[in-house]
Automatic annotation (TrEMBL):
Source species of the chain: Actinacidiphila glaucinigra
Molecular-function annotations in GO: isomerase activity; oxidoreductase activity
Any Pfam family matching the protein: DSBA
Domain DSBA-like thioredoxin: 3-202
Name the record gives this protein: Predicted dithiol-disulfide isomerase, DsbA family
Amino acid sequence: MKVEIYSDIACPWCYVGKRRFERALAAFPQADQVEVVYRPFQLAPDKSETPESHRAYLNERYGPQSAAMDARLEELGRAEGLAFDFDRAIENNTLLAHRLLWHALNAYGAKEQAALKDRLLVAHFAEGADVGDRDTLAALAAEAGLDRDRAAVFLASDEGRAEVLAEMDDARAIGVNAVPTFVFEGKWAVQGGQESSTFLRVLEQVAQETGAVPAAPAADACTDGACEVPAG
């Protein structure tokens, strides 16, 4: 079974959804037969390549309600064992980080890409790292098990840029307009950072549909807990 997860490093629900999905996968008997690949999506593709504080950036985009949004995510994060430090968080354009994830998948493999994805999310949301900075990204790549020098050379080039942009165009073409979006076997999609129990039911249903396991109850269709591109 192949699961493609469309997400953005700047999306807090992608952080929560990743943890919940991984918990579901750990409980899925056929987990060793599941390939997980992360696909790029940008909530703010026009964001400048100038770092700015998360609090100021979110307040500009969403106004006074942004504080309540952060507070809710901090509470949800604690329940999932995830740390959010929005006072330290830095917002920047995430294209470089998506290119690095593309590099991890194509040069190393899906497991290495997943490890890098986790490292980027933790660095962004809990450590105040600038994931739009090349030196920072190269260091994070090394911490995730990739070769630092190779990552630095890659980031200094334009390699993967056209491919990543094409993948994001493809995502919108198939109807992905909010993240995280989990696409199973290229046919079934679940949007949002759903509860682990929902993800587990989806895994069971897809396995049933593909003939991997006996019939299981169908999963509920849900769209909660997603980060959307604001209407322009």
